[in-house]
Amino acid sequence: MPGDRIGIGALIERLEGDFPDISISKVRYLESEGLVSPERTASGYRKYSEDDVDRLRFVLTAQRDRFWPLKVIRERLDAHDRGLDVADDGAVVAPSSDGGDSQPTTTGRLAPADRGRPLRLTAIELQHAADIDTGTFRELVAYGLLPKQRDHFDRSDLEVARACGALVAAGIDVRHLRPFKSAAEREVGLAEHVLGQQALRGRAADAVGLDDETVRRQVVEDCLELHLALVRRGLADGA
């Protein structure tokens, strides 16, 4: 079963077919290096998950076939833990915008990053994933389209950067994208206003079976629909 965990003896049995020199001391050494972190029972016994098995396969394969030092392996595992995908050649890439479900692996390659795991990108990783250059990235930060003074950027930041990158590639200056942020902030403000009015009138969202977040999303979606309708009409009038 997916939630089952195994002891270190069973772990060795799982791995020794591909890695004959695997041993308990080797596994414990890799654990001491922070490359795998099994759960511990109340009595202190290690219990390994399928993710732990995959991580160890990746580490052992990288050492045997790619001759990677532990520093490089640790960097790849860190990227995976931050929601990035690690390719067979060790390249680190952000997941595509269409996502995809994580699948187990037994090939020495890490499974695709868990899409439910928060994505955390460095500035350089964000630029590569969004296909924007450093100058564009700095302008996006300067104009408030991306947050300032961040060590890592999340999935929503990546979506913004990709959308902005597409518009910049079409020939639009970053400074002309600032109104989009202002419009988004107004739409979120309208959603908060609706919630406030409901509370004042004694008709809170939960009274009609909706939570606050659902109401916020619905108001914002209605604002977007209005925006699209007005743009379509403007294009039709100008045709």
Oligomer: single chain
SSE string, helices as H and strands as E: HHEEHHEEHHHHH
Strand order of the largest sheet: 1-2
* Number of E-type strands: 4
Cα(first) to Cα(last) distance is 60 Å
Please state the overall shape, judged from the principal axes of the Cα atoms: elongated
**Range of strand content:** under 5%
Task: Characterize this entry briefly.
The protein has 239 residues and is mainly alpha-helical. It has nine helices and four strands, in the order ααββααββααααα. β3 (85-86) and β4 form a beta hairpin.
Structure description:
With 239 residues, the protein is mostly helical. It has 2 domains: 8-93, Multidrug-efflux Transporter Regulator, Chain: A, Domain 2 (Orthogonal Bundle); 123-238, no CATH class. It has 9 helices and 4 strands. The longest helix is centred in the last third of the chain and has 27 residues, at 212-238.
Secondary structure topology:
Layout: H1 8-15, H2 24-32, E1 39-40, E2 46-47, H3 50-65, H4 70-81, E3 85-86, E4 92-93, H5 123-130, H6 134-142, H7 155-169, H8 178-200, H9 212-238
Antiparallel strand pairs: 1-2, 3-4
Helix pairs in contact: 5-7, 8-9
Attribute tags:
4 strands; 239 residues; single chain; mainly alpha; Multidrug-efflux Transporter Regulator, Chain: A, Domain 2; 2 domains; two-stranded antiparallel sheet; 3% strand
